[in-house]
Amino acid sequence: MLRRQQIMLNDRLWQVDRWFSFADSHKVAVSHCLVCPACGRTWATLSFPDDRLIWPVAAFCGCTQDADDWRPVPGSILVEEGYGEVDDQLLWSLPEELLRREFNLHIKALT
Predict the structure, then answer these.
(1) Any idea what the Cα angle at residue 49 is, between residues 21 and 53, rounded to 5°?
(2) pLDDT on residue 102
(3) pLDDT (tens digit, 9 = 90+) per residue, 33-45?
(4) How far apart are CA 79 and CA 70, in angstroms?
(5) Which residues fall within 8 angstroms of residue 90, CB to CB, at 6 or more apart?
(6) pTM over the 0.90 mark
């Protein structure tokens, strides 16, 4: 099922139509707010307009280069739903600007 998801990042809003399930339909997407454990700032929100709850997720915003096994790329909006399981349907639905941003963050994290 397709759903519209809103992505709020750096005071900008994007809306994407994406599949509701991911990981070969074993998981469903929920609304998240990304909270940096280093500075405490809520730096991104990925929400579905009809969700009643927005779940907080610890994710480094990029204020530091710290990372951990669960969030290895500071500043990435790709939420892991279990070790190594990324919301691939969100990735495939990102507009070009956000896709380039994710690409650059991941390349930076690898170097």
Answers:
(1) 80
(2) 92
(3) 999 988 999 999 9
(4) 9
(5) 5, 16, 18, 22, 29, 46, 77, 78, 79
(6) no
Provide the 8-state DSSP code for 53.
Answer: -
Residue segments in the chain with a per-residue pLDDT below the cut of 70: 21-26, 65-71, 81-84
DSSP letters spanning 55-111: EEEE---SSS----SS--STT----BSSTT-B-HHHHHH--HHHHHHHHHHHHHHH-
For 13, how many CA atoms within 13 A lie in the half-sphere containing its CB?
Answer: 7
Structure tokens belonging to residue 59: 């994710």
Its sign, for the CA torsion 86, 92, 98, 99, is: positive
Residue 106 corresponds to which tokens in the numbers above? 């991941």
